[in-house]
Amino acid sequence: MRDPREVLARQKHFNLRPRPLEQWLWRQAIAPSAERVFWLHWQEGMRSGDWCSCIPLKRVATLCALDVSSVTRAYQSLGRLGLLRRQDPGRDPRRPFEQAVAVTEVRVPRELVQELDRHPDRARSGDTASSDAGIAASGSVAREPDPVAPGEDAPRDPFQGLSGRERLRTLAGLLSRMSPVERRQYDDALRTHRASLTFDADCALSAEERGQVLQFLQRAAPAPLPPSQTAKGLPHAAPAIGPRRLSVFQLARLRRDLHALSGVERGAELLREVVWSVEQGALRRFTALHALRIALKKIREQAWTRPHRMPPNWSRELSVPPGQGTDGIFAGTGACRFA
What we know:
Elements: H1 4-10, H2 19-28, H3 32-48, E1 52-53, H4 57-63, H5 68-80, E2 84-87, E3 103-106, H6 110-114, H7 128-138, H8 164-176, H9 180-191, H10 207-220, H11 248-279, H12 288-300, E4 317-319, E5 335-337
Antiparallel strand pairs: 1-3, 2-3, 4-5
């Protein structure tokens, strides 16, 4: 008989919770019911890719083993802490007598964002040089890095075959024999991600040791961006590369605003026109938020016209995230269209 712990660990689904966020929640001493609700929306938002979820209230209560009133109080508590933001998408003309399901977006509080850099990162393949740079600067000991297959143009590892402690010891020995001027240049190169360093004429390091220092700086420096992604190749008003898709939360807020401005019937057609203009039309050259504000201002001032070159029967599918019921933002059973 197999060990059930092995079955749970190797075969069944499990949650991954970011440690800084989990510890921040513990410090807030919020109710356990609120934590359940938050992690449910975190999991569904991460799965959908836009950090938004659309789960009916009763479904949340069932999944979290809570009653509806506890879920409501949890939403209020999480909203005050800035962890959740909920948006009513407005009524669907096809289902006018049913309550709309609010779109919920998980957020990170500003207090946690400000202290995020103080939390250590996970060790990743390819981060050998960067982790060694942190070791040399802080004096802390790191575990042995994972082996990395060097790329075609990747600089050679100057400390290949050495463990983390041996790397620290070797690099610290090289730095201790450098002059104060050379050490300042090394620190500046490491801080500004430069791969060059000028040694003194009477440098105490041998030619091989100087090569190790330069190779280390080359590995610590980030790879250069291709010409298409440099600042000169990205003008502010240039359209985004690849298709743009508004998030579920943006669509819900846009639909609510359009219903408030022009009613449900007219709002459905305006929603279709605005989405096409922002995703594929003339407003695509602006950021999504800026483009939506431009469209709403034109509609408010009654200056909006049907987008030029918009196909007459254009439609866009909006898939409802799995496991969130059939009453999504635009209602339907699995996928919905602007028609």
